[in-house]
Amino acid sequence: MAERRPLLSVKNxxxxxxxxxxxxxxVSFELFEDEKIALVGANGSGKSTLLLHLSGCxxxxxxxxxxKDNDAGGNTSILMAAAGLVFQEPDDQMFMPSVLDDVTFGLxxxxxxxxxxxxxxxxxxxxxxxxxxxxxxPHRMSGGEKRISALAGILVMHPExxxxxxxxxxxxxxxxxxVIEILKDMDKPMILATHDLDMALDxxxxxxxLHKGTITASGETRQILCDEKLLRANGLALPMxxxxxxx
Length: 247
Ligand SMILES: Nc1ncnc2c1ncn2[C@@H]1O[C@H](COP(=O)(O)OP(=O)(O)OP(=O)(O)O)[C@@H](O)[C@H]1O
Ligand SMILES: [Mg+2]
Hints:
Layout: E1 8-16, E2 22-31, E3 36-40, H1 47-54, E4 62-67, E5 70-71, H2 76-82, E6 83-86, H3 99-109, H4 114-127, H5 143-155, E7 161-165, H6 173-185, E8 190-193, H7 197-203, E9 206-211, E10 214-220, H8 221-224, H9 228-233, H10 240-243
Parallel strand pairs: 3-8, 3-9, 6-7, 7-8
Antiparallel strand pairs: 1-2, 1-4, 4-5, 9-10
Adenosine-5'-triphosphate binds next to helix 1.
């Protein structure tokens, strides 16, 4: 049988911000074609910093990142082309005067004609239950409205790897459920940084725990997220459904 090759392979990645603070410390893991991985950890544990590396926004200083066996740590354009990151702060991502313009932007930049791009972008907003936001200026919307619009801007591009930084943060229950169902139906490799451990249980077969920039646990989501002692040692708590006694 052919060996199962990872799509993404991170080896001993370490990163210090310019002020000298250490954000990642010898992080190693692999993402396979058919996988959705949850990245969990307390505030400041390094989740966003890791996603910024995997999207090509940060170059791998110390350590390596391989995408399909190519050295993507040294050549960030490889990851920029392959991975789509939904930023933790939508304001860091959205810059066009209207939501529809913003969701259309990447398609047009990629060579899709303007009319088709607008129709495709509108359909993507519709799928997310956000078509009513199409003409709104992003800087005058609520946090949840911005988040769902920013998600549309990435999903519309159909990246090979989807990276999501707190995709359900600030969403109302209906919008949260819709996002979870859409992501569940997407047959794409994903890494989700999240404090929504119930979403991790619904979506991700594997979970990594980051603690102070180090991966302290990696394994089956259902095993990791019911281990109260492990979670507590990493500044986390049981998902709501386990805390409520529902398995
Ligand atoms: N621009 C920056 N300059 C200096 N230090 C930073 C910067 N951004 C983040 N850090 C630090 O790097 C560490 C990791 O931060 P990061 O944002 O990756 O954490 P996180 O796990 O995403 O946290 P949260 O759950 O709050 O989103 C923290 O100690 C943080 O204070
Ligand atoms: Mg973060």
